[in-house]
Amino acid sequence: MIETKTVCIVGLGVIGFPTALHISKYHKVIGYDINPEKVKDASNHFFATTEWSEVPESDVYVVCVNTWYRNGKPDMSAVELVCQKISESLIRKALISIESTVLVGTTRGIYEDVFKRQHYVANCPHRLWELGTLSSEDMKSYGVNQLRILGAVNEESLKMSEDFFHSIHTPVQLVSSSEISEMSKIVENSYRYIEIAYAEELSITCKKYKLNFSEVRKACNTLKREKEGWQVQIMEARDGIGGTCLPKDIEYLNYLSNPGELLKGAIKTDEYYRKLLK
Predict the structure, then answer these.
(1) How do beta strands 224-225 and 68-70 pair?
(2) CATH number for 215
(3) Cβ(101)–Cβ(49) under 8 Å?
(4) What mean pLDDT is predicted for residues 168-190?
(5) Tell me, what DSSP letter sits at residue 241?
(6) Which of 15, 88, 141, 215 has the most crowded CB, counting CB atoms within 10 A?
(7) Residue 262 lies in a domain
(8) Model confidence pLDDT, tens digit, residues 222-274
(9) Exposure pattern of 104-130 as b/e (b: 16+ CB <10 Å)?
(10) Domain range spanning residue 125?
């Protein structure tokens, strides 16, 4: 029998709230957010508060706060701030799982500088689609408990976090370090961004030569090399690359000393495509 733990979800937005709902099936959940409206909504399901002083010491802290790319650089300040709050309130050893998308090295830096190597610290980036875009059936494949990448700052933290995710029936792919898991999240979102930007550029080119983009796309997507494990899969070109994740994460990857122009080109393509839609 799995021991019931007290789990504090820090950040109750589009990621944190469904995460808290899922974890509440298996453990006692405490929710924290600085936004009163989010706390009010969450309070219909579990105890939530805007006051950190009301958060009891917990066994596990799941960090789901925002990160940004602003003023020309990645901004991890919200993650660092809440981890500082957690550190100051801890007496016994706890597990801190960072699920926010962070720059490579953030998790280890927080482990060393904020938690002073005294706690278990892991990085397990979310892969959740926003609730409003998913049917109940889709949530089974694209919700909280889909396969996740899990890295940690050391073997002990990795084992503790693996056990926790097992307790909430969420499958994980273990990697050798928190840096690998951090990078994987940035890379997979940047890859998606480039795919869409390529479709946008192809759409512009087809329009220039009076060709039907949908027909070209459909024709190309018949190429499949199943034995080699690859295929052509050109995306649709819709309304530009929106949301907060993909545009931010490709900037993160570009920030990490990218020597080429591919990422910058994808960003410029999407900007140009959006202008044409106006």
Answers:
(1) unpaired
(2) 1.10.1040.10
(3) no
(4) 97
(5) S
(6) 15
(7) yes
(8) 999 999 999 999 999 999 998 889 999 999 999 997 778 999 999 999 999 99
(9) bebbbbbbeebbeeebbbbbbbbbbbe
(10) 6-176
